Amino acid sequence: MVSANSLLKALFIFFNQLFVVVGGVIFSLGLLCHVFTNEAEFEERKMGIFYLYLVGALTIIIALLGAYGAHKEKKSMLIVFFVGMCLACSVMLRFAVPSAIIRPQMEEAVESYFRSLVPLDRTPPSTRHMAELLQAQFKCCGIFNGYKDWQRIPQSCVCQDDEFENCDSVSLTPYETLFSQRVTMVYTQQSCGPMLVNYVVKIFDIWLGICFGLAALALLGVVMSSLLLVQMKPPKFRRPMIFSLSSHPPKYSELINESSKSDGGHGW
Predict the structure, then answer these.
(1) Beta-carbon contacts of residue 244 (< 8 Å; ≥ 6 apart)
(2) The pTM of the whole model exceeds 0.70
């Protein structure tokens, strides 16, 4: 078998080492999600965790097959790698292209979804708990209308003693409240909605970049494995010329007899 180009082989092995790292990162993300997800949320996230495990493990296995196939010049393993990269590129483009098409409407759709959650008191407990965590973390209140998005203003909207410059006094008379005072200081300088929309859109853009980036890497793997397979193709077989050496001299007497017959039986 013809030896593949050494530089191309080295680049291909390095490329697969990067893919092993990518697969390890994906698998580790699945493991972290599994560890830090409580039992109540695990049922909702188990399919996503399973896909992280699956994609990470398949990426590592295919990359190792490709590296070993290039190192040992095993065509069967390179063919498996080629098929795997073709499938991976197709799957990534299957997710990336539709996502890129809906990207211009993404911000409006996210904003519409968050507005549908008002009033926040009537949302599921997990959503309400997440909203309160965001309010406490980013010092904001409500989604787009401030404290008015709550029927009962939560503690996370109430300003601390040293933060009154970003707060306003609000009369709680029209609202049911957990606090004894009728007037309190709440965050009114900013709502959480715009920050949430920007956050979701950025995550979506990162998702798009990852999909297109992995698709490009898979396409590069297809091209490199194809070049390796072409270089490893054996040369066309040429049938060798056979020279036969006989130990017997040619029969000159037969040639003379034939010549005599053609002359009518007359000699010189």
Answers:
(1) none
(2) no
Q: pLDDT 10s digit of each residue in the chain, 268 long?
A: 445 578 888 888 888 888 888 888 888 888 887 777 766 666 667 777 788 888 888 888 888 888 888 888 888 888 888 898 899 889 888 888 988 888 888 888 888 888 888 888 888 887 888 888 888 888 888 888 887 888 887 787 777 766 666 676 766 544 444 444 444 677 766 778 888 888 888 888 888 888 898 888 889 888 988 888 888 766 555 555 555 555 555 555 554 555 555 555 454 4
Rounded Cα gap, residues 144 and 265, in angstroms: 124
User: 17: Cβ–Cβ under 8 A, 6 or more apart, which residues?
Assistant: 63, 67
Output b/e per residue, 191-217; b: 16+ Cβ within 10 A: bbbeebbeebeeebeeebeebbebbeb
Residues counted in the chain: 268
183 - beta bridge partners?
171
Residue 152 bridge partners (DSSP): 176
CA distance 138 to 163: 12
Q: How far is residue 28's CA from residue 34's CA, in Å, rounded to a whole number?
A: 10
Q: How many CB atoms lie within 10 A of CB 228?
A: 24
Listing DSSP states for 117-181 in one string gives: T-SGGGS-HHHHHHHHHHHHHHT--SSSSGGGG-SEE-GGGBPPTT-GGGEEEEE-TTSEESSS-
